[in-house]
């Protein structure tokens, strides 16, 4: 782990290193149920470059992001690059998460700071409180945010952020050497929700210099094997 940490630390964008003390501060302030993950999105397939308190999700340096694209698409908006209060399941536990997308002064997307909170203890306390209030129902499930229609997303900041992330994935893998490498790349993009994005098929086909027919066939094969 020490060796991996050093390797990724050296490769990290200098701007991102400023967020490491912030990650440590958040965990030291809010305790064991909080985890902070720092991503260098210039390398999407190995984006995790720092983890403070990996107990919550078990994230490891060198892993990829998981939920960013799908959750960003579900969000109504991202205020100044902040995607706040979305939920996902991890080993049967509900995790509350918020993400800050990090850009350079020129506006280039380079990273993300993700705060993950294990809600297990809170849920248990709510359930206990419910036993003291018979007949009163407490809502334990977070409110879901309905996804936007395609037209309302077209010019939104969050869609631009998602498309920038897709471009990062393709820039890291511009020329798959053979079909196996191409399928591996498409499998990664499918698992990360890339093809949920409007226009993603056209974008990916153009970047990989392949026809949409071939891309559809490859994607169909990937989906059949998953």
Summary keywords:
226 residues; alpha+beta; 9 helices; 5 strands
Tell me about this structure.
This protein is an alpha+beta fold and 226 residues long. It is 42% helix and 19% strand. The chain has helices spanning 2-11, 20-30, 68-74, 120-132, 150-153, 157-172, 179-191, 200-207, 212-225; strands spanning 34-40, 48-52, 82-90, 93-103, 109-118. β1 and β2 (48-52) form a beta hairpin. α7 crosses α9. The protein is globular and about 60 Å long.
Strand order of the largest sheet: 2-1-5-4-3
- The N- and C-terminal alpha carbons lie at a distance of 30 Å
Average of the residue pLDDT scores: 84
Strand segment tally = 5
Largest sheet: 5 strands, antiparallel
The dominant shape is globular
Which class of secondary structure composition applies to the elements?
A: alpha+beta
Oligomeric state: single chain
Q: Work out the radius of gyration.
A: 19 Å
Q: How many H/I helices?
A: 9
Report the order of strands and helices. HHEEHEEEHHHHHH
Taken as a percent bin, the fraction of beta residues is 15-25%
């Amino acid at each position: 782990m020490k060796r991996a940490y050093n390797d990724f630390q050296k490769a990290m964008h200098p701007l991102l290193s400023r967020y490491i003390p912030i990650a440590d501060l958040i965990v030291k302030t809010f305790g064991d149920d909080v985890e902070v993950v720092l991503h260098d999105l210039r390398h999407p397939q190995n984006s995790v470059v720092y983890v403070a308190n990996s107990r919550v999700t078990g994230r490891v340096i060198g892993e990829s992001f998981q939920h960013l694209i799908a959750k960003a698409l579900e969000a109504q908006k991202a205020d100044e690059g902040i995607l706040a209060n979305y939920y996902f399941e991890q080993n049967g536990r509900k995790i509350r998460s918020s993400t800050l997308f990090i850009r350079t002064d020129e506006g280039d997307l380079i990273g993300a700071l993700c705060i993950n909170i294990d809600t297990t203890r809170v849920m248990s306390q709510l359930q206990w409180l419910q036993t003291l209030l018979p007949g009163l129902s407490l809502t334990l499930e977070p409110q879901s945010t309905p996804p936007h229609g395609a037209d309302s997303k077209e010019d939104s900041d969050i869609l631009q952020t998602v498309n920038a992330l897709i471009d990062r994935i393709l820039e890291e893998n511009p020329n798959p050497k053979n079909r196996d490498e191409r399928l591996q790349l498409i499998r990664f993009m499918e698992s990360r929700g890339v093809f949920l994005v409007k226009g993603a098929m056209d974008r990916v086909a153009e970047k990989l210099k392949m026809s949409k027919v071939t891309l559809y066939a490859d994607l169909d094969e990937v989906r059949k094997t998953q």
